[in-house]
Every structure is written in structure tokens, then in C-alpha cells.
Specification:
Chains A, B: It comes from Actinacidiphila acididurans. The structure is a homodimer of 206-residue chains. Chain A is mostly helical and 206 residues long. Helices cover 71% and strands 0% of the residues of chain A.
Chain lengths: 206, 206
């Protein structure tokens, strides 16, 4: 079984890499198996469909990213320091991707939301769960900052959604312009959206 | 020639509708011609490639949207009133799409940015031009609001980019959750990003 589970990992790894670069629709299972170096016939032994593989890639990617988000957002520091670290790590991650692949790959969840959400309900549902979980995690930090009277935003759910939306929108532009430095304004915008008090910062303040 | 130009319009219309629903990669020229009701062989008489058709769809869509943006953003009202109207019309447009198609279709430019920007440089370049033009138009209104001391954002370019990024991010979520009412918080977030003075609003203020 060591051998077969190794083939499954190879298929998953190849699919993850190909999806990050070219999306989901343009890929075929034969191409994925070729990139994975496994016989084409073995695909359906491990995955019942391309959609099942897509879900497995999403789940694996979120399991890793979730650990990062939890480490950063549930640490000991002040709430806004933790949130700032999330933005810094996001920028660093996109910069590292750009350096290793030559292009900013963007956010897999955002990419698939726009590519797929209107034509596979199973993947749409999974992406909704992932973004709900992200908003939950950000909302908790926002609520803590609000309790400390460090921000003025009253509806912490709407504020957390706006923060994640700003992140997705800026990552979209970083990908389109292939320029991860575009992300360095995100934190200022986040503070403005939250109505952060001490900083008095808005999008345009250096 | 009346007949041939009519066929070109039919291909364009079918491609636009199919791309809005299913993206670009998943489409084939045969399918587009079938939906357009024109002979498959006529495709290359009008378009030299699928990519050329994709560009034509983008150009046509932006020509229409640009007129709407110009009408709204260069009107006589106060700058922030004009910007607010842009957000209201965006929300109304997504709501109308949801009512007629059953699903929120999102922003064609955002959709294609995430689906395609890393694998067709020609389309990436065109999308960059379109978003540059959008940011230019928003920046002009933001600069006018700044001149009237109605907002505190100092770098009007960064602020305009953040406003368009917030719009794209929220439209992404409206599409993913198939819920156009998610867009009704956009204006509050926009005011917060700009550091609007009179309102004192932030993302969470009702």
C-alpha cells in the first residue's frame, strides 16, 4: 500500500501545481497523471472523478493554510498585531511564489471561486465553507480589538468580510499585474476599514 | 455583407453569454458556433483564434461598461455622490443578472483575471488596461473629494486602487454565495477606505 498511497500523493501534488498555474477547467486527468508520473489508468483508482480530485486539492490546501492562520491569529500579541502579521505573511507567501514560479499565483480559493462557482455546486459549497471559516477567524480578532476599543467598526461580521474581500481584491490585482509589491498597501486599507483609532490611517496615508 | 456581419455579432453574443456563465477555458469554438446558430466553419472567417474572440468580447463589454462609468462618475453631483452611484449601479447590475440568469455572474474582468492572467499574456495585457482605466476614473473622483476636504486619504492612486479592489473582492463573494445583497455594504467600506470625514462611517456602522 506504500506504493499506491505514494501515487495518490503524486497525483494530488501535480494537480495542485497545475491548478495553481492554469486553473481547473483547462486540465484533463491524462495531463495530471503525466505530470505526476503515474499511469493514466490509475487515476480512477484513487479519485472517482476530476471533481473529487479538485475537492481533495482544496481540502489539502486549506488544511495547511488554516494551520498558518490559526498560528498567526490566535497568538499572544495584541489583536491588531496578529491581524497585521496575517497580511504580512500573505504578502510574503505571494512574493515567494513569484520568485519560485516567475508569476504571482494568487489565492487558489479566489481563483476557483471566479472560475468555477457557477458550474460545480460541490466545489462552490466547499469554497463557501472555507471563506466562512476565514471570516470567522478574522471576526474573532476584530471583536477582540473592538473590546479593547482599538477600532470603531460596530458590525464585526461585516467588517471581517470587508477585510477578507479587500485581501482577495488586492491579491487579484497582484496576480493580474504579476506584482506582489501591490500587496503592501493592504494593511493600511484594513485599518481604515476597521476604523482603527490610534493609527488614524487611511488608504492614502504613507 | 449584412449577413456576414450579423453572423459575427451572433458569435460575439454567444461567446459573451457562455463566458459569463462558464469562463473561457472550458469553451470550444464549435460549442460557441452551435450556440450562435452559425456554421462551425465560419468561425475563422471572423476571428483568427479563440483568443481573438476573447479579446473582442472583453473590448465590447468594456466599451459598454466604460460608458456607464463615465456617465455616472463625470456627472454634475458632488464627487462622493457620484462614486456612491457607481456602487449602487454595480449592485443593481448584479441583482438584475441574478434575476435573469438565476446566478450572480460577477465581474467578467475579475473572473478572467483569475482564470487566465497566468496563461494568456495578450488577455492579461488587455485586462490590465481595463483596470488601469477604471482606477483612473475612480482616482479623478477621489481627487475631487480630496480637494473639497471631504476625505482624508492622501495618496489618491492607492485609495482608488483599494476602492476597486474592495469592489472586486465583494463581487467575488456575491458570486460565490450567489447573493447580490452582500454588495450593499460596499459603500460603507468605500467611505472607510477613503477616510470620509462627514460620515464618520466604518465598515460596521449601520
Amino acid at each position: 500500500m506504500g506504493r499506491t498511497s505514494n501515487a495518490r500523493e503524486k497525483i494530488l501534488g501535480a494537480a495542485r501545481s497545475l491548478m495553481a498555474q492554469r486553473g481547473y477547467s483547462a486540465l484533463g486527468t491524462a495531463e495530471i497523471c503525466k505530470a505526476a508520473g503515474v499511469p493514466k489508468g490509475s487515476f480512477y483508482y484513487f479519485f472517482e472523478s476530476k471533481e473529487a480530485l479538485g475537492l481533495a486539492v482544496l481540502d489539502e490546501h486549506w488544511a495547511m493554510q488554516r494551520k498558518d492562520w490559526e498560528r498567526v491569529l490566535t497568538g499572544d500579541g495584541a489583536p491588531l498585531d496578529r491581524l497585521r502579521l496575517l497580511f504580512e505573511e500573505t504578502e510574503a507567501g505571494q512574493r515567494a511564489g513569484q520568485e519560485s514560479c516567475g508569476t504571482v499565483l494568487g489565492c487558489m480559493f479566489g481563483n476557483l471561486s471566479l472560475e468555477l462557482s457557477n458550474h460545480t455546486e460541490v466545489i462552490r459549497g466547499r469554497l463557501q465553507e472555507i471563506f466562512d471559516a476565514q471570516v470567522d477567524m478574522v471576526q474573532e480578532v476584530v471583536a477582540q480589538a473592538r473590546q479593547r476599543a482599538e477600532i470603531t467598526a460596530e458590525d464585526t461580521r461585516d467588517a471581517a468580510r470587508a477585510v477578507v474581500a479587500q485581501l482577495e481584491g488586492q491579491v487579484l490585482f497582484a496576480k493580474l499585474y504579476n506584482d506582489s509589491t501591490r500587496l503592501n498597501v493592504m494593511w493600511r486599507n484594513c485599518l481604515a476599514i476597521l476604523g482603527a483609532k490610534a493609527s488614524g490611517e487611511t488608504a492614502g496615508v504613507a
